[in-house]
């Protein structure tokens, strides 16, 4: 089976070509293991030069879409898809990419799959009603819709498209595993004998302040507690002396930080974007065998149904309560094997085979 992927080069603050991170990298790689031929065209807003690399059997190619390249972007994508002669076309990432993928697939006469890993109409850049209409139009006309979270899946099934499948954000279990917390602290130069609470991902007004305020409250009772953070920061001040901020790290360093912490968190506020999200970090945390505290948004409550102490209200007081409870009496959820990329890739392969 020939599979053509159309996606973004830069997403979730990562570079598809250099960082080899997330679903846009791992889904194509897993499909190749089933004997398929996969070509990934990644739209590049930052560079004018095309790049072609072969990684893990997948052909990754960039299509520049800078200001002076945009007029030829659609033509270049169409030509590349024609050369690939796909049996199925998959588009992933934002509204216009989905629509372009649908447009190309219909002209090639092949099935179209729309991979929705976030609720794109909630992005500030997509606030115009015409884009929300275009999003619904693309979903309704897709032959199959992939959703990264259970809330997204339910939204699609409720009146948009009955041909939808849950394809969650998985984890590389070879990289994220249960390690020695003392060795991890030594490797990351963290203090060995104090409680550490961590969060690793984008730090924004809706993803971070809850945890900072919760830790501030906990420190009234446990003044030696420290908060460990890593990720891109937007409009958040991290000047507290008890916060260890590591900046934006390579993916290979994140497991060490997770292993070093006593409790790791998903401090998401209750807004439209977060309520539809499928956080990559949950699979990473569970694969490392760590105690987790996640706010009661999206489908976090069902994910941690066997470890209810892991869930709290999106409120600093309740998050502080949950973190303290996890520090005193850790309750660790088992890692679901279906969140390994190998399992997710097999699930997608079976769906594409039926579609083709």
From TrEMBL:
Residues 31-174 form the Glycosyltransferase subfamily 4-like N-terminal domain. It comes from the Bacteria. Pfam families: Glyco_trans_1_4, Glyco_transf_4. InterPro entries: Glyco_trans_4-like_N, Glycosyltransferase_grp1. SUPFAM superfamilies: UDP-Glycosyltransferase/glycogen phosphorylase. This is Glycosyltransferase. It comes from Methylomonas fluvii.
């Amino acid at each position: 089976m020939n599979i053509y992927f159309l996606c973004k080069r830069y997403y979730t603050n990562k570079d598809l070509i250099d960082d080899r991170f997330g679903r846009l990298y791992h889904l194509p790689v897993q499909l190749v293991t089933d004997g398929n031929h996969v070509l990934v065209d990644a739209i590049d807003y930052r560079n004018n030069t095309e790049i072609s690399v072969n990684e893990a059997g997948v052909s990754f190619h960039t299509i520049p879409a800078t200001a002076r390249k945009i007029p030829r972007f659609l033509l270049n994508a169409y030509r590349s898809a024609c050369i690939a002669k796909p049996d199925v076309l998959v588009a992933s990432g934002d509204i216009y990419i989905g629509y372009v993928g649908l447009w190309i697939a219909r002209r090639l006469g092949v099935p179209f799959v729309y991979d929705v890993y976030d609720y794109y109409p909630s992005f500030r850049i997509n606030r115009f009603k015409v884009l929300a209409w275009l999003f619904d139009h693309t979903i309704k006309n897709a032959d199959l819709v992939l959703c990264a979270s259970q809330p997204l899946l339910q939204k699609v099934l409720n009146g948009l498209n009955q041909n939808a499948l849950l394809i969650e954000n998985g984890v590389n279990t070879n990289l994220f595993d249960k390690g020695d917390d003392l060795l991890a602290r030594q490797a990351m130069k963290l203090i060995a004998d104090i409680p550490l609470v961590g969060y690793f991902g984008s730090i924004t007004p809706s993803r971070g302040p809850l945890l900072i305020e919760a830790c501030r409250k906990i420190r009234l009772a446990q003044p030696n507690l420290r908060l460990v953070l890593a990720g891109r920061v937007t409009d958040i001040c991290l000047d507290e002396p008890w916060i260890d901020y590591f900046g934006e790290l390579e993916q290979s360093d994140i497991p060490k930080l997770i292993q070093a912490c006593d409790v790791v968190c998903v401090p998401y506020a209750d807004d439209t974007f977060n309520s539809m999200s499928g956080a990559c970090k949950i699979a990473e945390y569970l694969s490392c065998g760590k105690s987790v505290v996640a706010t009661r948004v999206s489908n976090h409550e069902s994910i941690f149904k066997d470890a209810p102490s892991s869930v709290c209200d999106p409120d600093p007081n309740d998050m502080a309560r949950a973190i303290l409870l996890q520090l005193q009496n850790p309750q660790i959820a088992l890692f679901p094997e279906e969140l390994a990329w190998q399992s997710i890739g097999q699930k997608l392969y079976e769906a594409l085979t039926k579609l083709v």
